[in-house]
Amino acid sequence: MRIAWGQDMADCGFDLPPRFGVAERRLAGQAVAAWRAAGGAAIAGFEANSLVLAGEPAGPVVTQCGAAVAEAFGLEPGMALAGRPGLAAALCDAAGGGDRQPVPIEARLPGLAGSTILVRGVMLPLVDGARPPAGGDAVQVVMNWREILGRAATARLRHEIGLILAERPAKSARIDPFSRNTAG
Fold it and tell me: Whole-prediction pTM value?
């Protein structure tokens, strides 16, 4: 079928492809979508990678802390974050705004043995009904992190891989059965 120039595509007889929903892959994006769906209340399903902070006059205090966050960063409920290094300092810096919108968090923290920990997440302000009993503003922080090896550790790893590969005998190339001349 030939289409005349300027003819409407709806008249050409083609079916348009179906529209597919795009699911958010990032943890922070999923958390923001769930927070909006919950009307600003605390969200479930992110417990291991989240913590709840209460705004106190002396600085934020952890009221709830997920198991993965507690293990990776040494945080626990009741801990005041003001004056602490690492993730606590990054959270204190991000918690300063009075805006009732999600606040993205990105931080680069020193890890063990010269590694670097990259943290990415979002601070979600909680509505009045979800605030801790002590009062004040509360935010739920949902985050994930990755540890990146330092230069010395990367060099050691490359050296060890090279030693292992040097120990293995070289494999001979296989003959491709389809490259043989099969004709008479």
Answer: 0.65
